[in-house]
Amino acid sequence: MESAYIMPDKAHYGLLKGKKGIIFGPLDESSIGWQIALHAYNEGAEIAISNVATALRFGNIDALSKACGNAPLIVCDASRDEDVNKAFLELKEQIGSVDFIVHSIGMSQNIRKQMPYEELNYEWFMRTLDVSGISLHRIVSSALKNDALNDGASVLALSYIASQRNYWTYSDMGDAKSLLESIVRSYGPRLAKRGIRINTISQSPTYTKAGSGIPGFEQMHEYSDLMSPLGNASAEECAEYSVTLLSDLTRKVTMQNLFHDGGYSSMGATIPMIRLAHEVLHDNDLAERVSLDDYKPSR
Ligand SMILES: NC(=O)c1ccc[n+]([C@@H]2O[C@H](COP(=O)([O-])OP(=O)(O)OC[C@H]3O[C@@H](n4cnc5c(N)ncnc54)[C@H](O)[C@@H]3O)[C@@H](O)[C@H]2O)c1
């Protein structure tokens, strides 16, 4: 898709002029991290891009690097202490210490293999928590140890509402996102001494490699769209919002989980969803087709 390599044709405001940053997790043009990299560069930032070796070898990340002013590509498995440490040493050598870090990393082997939540493989569970949650702690810790984070910097990670509400098919990723959001709160006051802020964006379901690996993702995406007054937010829109959080315009925003979801998280019911539920409850064929009896509350 050629268009993905071209800078977004949108007004830019120089919001990140003079800032440097690193973005962990762009994989392909659908990735939220990919869009954040493009938008951050477009807003004037000098950036570095990081991912695991296989992603850098087999993806098109070179193209992203080119589109972002030959941004350095840094190999790093965010679940390995020595990799993260080396990444920050390399970052300092390549562009110096940074004003923002974006954590756009997530992975669950239990979801990939469709393990029922009651039968999670615990090795994979630990890996989900490590890669998708603890890696944020490791990244911030290593950035501090290596003196790679400037005063007044912004740290941003991507979350999902399943951290706080039950989403059956999101399985152990819900637990990882709870951990991620908790790490943000724990770090907040510790980083604040240097004016550094740390937040998560809780994004709508988005068609990406990680997102569409979740069983029934298409239905989730449709449902979420019907429940959101402004509709689902895209990866590009998420990147636009992210830029504000990396900029000086949000200097006093910290320790927050910020919903970027078209209003979804504040809705109780929407007219189309109520009508759909009513139709199915009064149509035996349809009720059978969607296995309604399996999910009806016991009376
Ligand atoms: N897609 C959605 O519906 C959605 C919704 C809300 C939040 N998010 C979150 O957005 C973030 C980005 O995901 P995405 O949807 O853009 O999918 P994506 O698949 O494009 O990105 C996930 C990235 O994580 C990287 N990764 C996996 N293991 C790693 C490791 N050990 N070390 C370093 N990187 C590793 C992958 O290589 C990939 O680049 C994730 O935190 C995800 O949970 C996604």
Automatic annotation (TrEMBL):
Keyword terms, alphabetized: Fatty acid biosynthesis, Fatty acid metabolism, Lipid biosynthesis, Lipid metabolism, NAD, Oxidoreductase
Gene3D superfamilies found in the cross-reference section: NAD(P)-binding Rossmann-like Domain
Gene Ontology BP terms: fatty acid biosynthetic process
Record CDD domains: ENR_SDR
Transmembrane residue ranges: none
Enzyme Commission numbers on file: 1.3.1.9
Amino acids binding NAD(+): G25, S31, I32, I105, K177
This protein's name: Enoyl-[acyl-carrier-protein] reductase [NADH]
Originating species: Prosthecochloris aestuarii (strain DSM 271 / SK 413)
Taxonomic lineage of the native organism: Bacteria, Pseudomonadati, Chlorobiota, Chlorobiia, Chlorobiales
